[in-house]
């Protein structure tokens, strides 16, 4: 199966292919996947059990007769989508809240590369919620725009602005058509709003002067769907809107995109409150921009703020073991080198789950992994960050590394720089009583930053002697 030499180990292709597939860093795992690690070590490594926290807030709102409104963030690949799948399963339990959960993936219903607005989100919620209720009723979800709430909304919208019918026709939206295959007409309408900028712009312009009645229409429709969910045997609805943290735009428009997200979730958040429980994910950079309470899913904490080892190592080690058992990991790393290389890999990740899996996959991809190649795989991550981090950010990153105060990131004049650092995984969030931040270990090795860290430490030492 493998050939060993004094330089390294050669691993057979089929074994590599098997574990290469199991180490896909972009795969969002279902809540019952055997590769998931949800024991006490992970809860301790992240500060607490976040599903328990979010579910508890929804359940308390349910018992008090209110509707929960929660904002949730974390880096893509931090395990957030998996946590939300767990949350969905928890809230649907018959012995618990027993809510009908509508889990929406923003990548399928929102243009994440352009500015966002409240109507984009609410129309997507209405369409996906109606589909989910129809499924719970044992009906065909392709009926979602034939005679239901979304159909009435569309009729109201086009009657309010006749010109919109012409724009819709030009865009290819014919709401009189039946569903095609498993795709409902409602789903097609949402897709057209996502992919056809002309139609989306016209809908936004139409609603700009009709926002109050529009929101009233949406809230009435969702309230009706909540009643139908209860008639189907549930205690009500909960909407979970995932993947909005991926709203980053492109190189040319990312500032406008992030500003639109801030406008929606800070200044217009009241318009996103529903008559049912709702949780929205938001871009990581907004956690320092808006005053509302935002739940942060932190990295696995490998070290305490004073540098002492923390529980994250145990959780990260189990994460690797769930993907590649130790007996097969020996075939990639070599039994004598296994734990030393695993430790280096975990350290290099900064406790970022996606980075752990990505680095592990890069190692699996190599048919012959010696020490030189292993170090090259790790240093490649530093090269990727080198292209992301501008030299103007070096002083800020050095101060964050040396002092670790979150106030470093909250200075208004550096907001744009901080936004990019958070969105590009350069700065990672942790929890130790309160949130704190550190720079990615790969970034710590960049020459300009190591020089700036040394300069800052020397300056601190000199000040201490005076």
What does this structure look like?
There is one protein chain. By secondary structure, this protein is α/β, with parallel strands linked by helices. It folds into three domains: 16-27 and 300-386, no CATH class; 48-296, no CATH class; 391-465, Arc Repressor Mutant, subunit A (Orthogonal Bundle), CATH 1.10.10. 53% of the residues lie in helices and 10% in strands. The chain has 21 helices and ten strands. The strands form three sheets. It has a five-stranded parallel beta sheet, sandwiched between helices. Strands 1-2-8 form a three-stranded antiparallel beta sheet. The longest helix is centred in the middle third of the chain and has 21 residues, at 211-231. The termini are far apart. Mean pLDDT is 83; it is low at 1-8 and 175-185.
Write a short abstract of this structure.
The protein is 53% helix and 10% strand. The chain has 466 residues and is an alpha/beta fold. The strands form 3 sheets. A 5-stranded parallel beta sheet has the order 4-5-6-3-7, with helices on both faces. The protein has a 3-stranded antiparallel beta sheet with strand order 1-2-8. Strands 9-10 form a two-stranded antiparallel ribbon.
């Amino acid at each position: 199966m493998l050939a060993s030499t004094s330089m390294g180990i050669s691993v057979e292709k089929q074994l590599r292919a098997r574990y290469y597939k199991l180490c896909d860093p972009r795969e969002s795992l279902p809540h019952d996947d055997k590769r998931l690690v949800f024991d006490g070590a992970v809860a301790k490594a992240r500060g607490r059990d976040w599903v328990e926290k979010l579910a508890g807030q929804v359940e308390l709102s349910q018992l008090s007769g209110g509707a929960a409104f929660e904002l949730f963030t974390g880096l893509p690949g931090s395990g957030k989508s998996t946590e939300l799948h767990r949350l969905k399963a928890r809230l649907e339990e018959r012995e618990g809240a027993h809510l009908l959960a509508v889990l929406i993936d923003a990548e399928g219903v929102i243009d994440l590369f352009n500015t966002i607005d409240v109507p984009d989100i609410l129309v997507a919620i209405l369409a996906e919620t109606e589909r989910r209720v129809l499924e719970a009723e044992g009906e065909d979800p392709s009926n979602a725009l034939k005679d239901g709430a979304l159909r009435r909304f569309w009729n109201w919208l086009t009657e309010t602005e006749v010109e919109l019918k012409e724009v819709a026709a030009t865009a290819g939206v014919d709401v009189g058509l039946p569903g095609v295959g498993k795709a409902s007409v409602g789903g097609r309408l949402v897709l057209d709003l996502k992919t056809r900028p002309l139609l989306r712009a016209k809908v936004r312009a139409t609603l700009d002067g009709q926002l109050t009645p529009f929101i009233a229409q949406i809230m009435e429709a969702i309230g009706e769907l909540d009643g139908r969910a209860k008639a189907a045997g549930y205690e009500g609805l909960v909407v979970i809107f995932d993947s909005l943290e991926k709203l980053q735009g492109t190189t040319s428009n990312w500032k406008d995109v992030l500003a639109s997200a801030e406008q929606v979730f800070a200044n217009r958040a009241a318009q996103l409150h529903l008559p049912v429980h709702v949780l929205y994910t938001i871009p990581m950079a907004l956690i320092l921009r808006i005053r509302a309470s935002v739940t942060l899913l932190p990295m696995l904490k490998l070290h305490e703020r004073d540098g002492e080892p923390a529980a994250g190592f145990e959780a990260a080690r189990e994460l690797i073991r769930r993907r590649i058992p130790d007996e097969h990991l020996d075939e990639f790393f070599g039994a004598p080198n296994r734990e030393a290389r695993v430790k280096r890999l975990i350290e290099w990740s900064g406790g970022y789950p996606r980075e752990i899996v990505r680095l592990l996959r890069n190692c699996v991809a190599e048919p012959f992994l010696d020490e030189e190649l292993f170090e090259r795989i790790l240093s490649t991550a530093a090269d990727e960050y080198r292209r992301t981090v501008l030299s103007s950010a070096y002083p800020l990153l050095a101060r964050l590394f040396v002092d670790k105060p979150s106030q470093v990131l909250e200075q208004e004049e550096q907001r744009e720089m901080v936004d990019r650092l958070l969105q590009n995984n350069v700065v990672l969030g942790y929890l130790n009583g309160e949130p704190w931040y550190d720079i990615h270990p790969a970034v710590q090795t960049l020459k300009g930053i190591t020089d700036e860290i040394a300069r800052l430490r020397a300056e601190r030492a000199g000040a201490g002697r005076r």
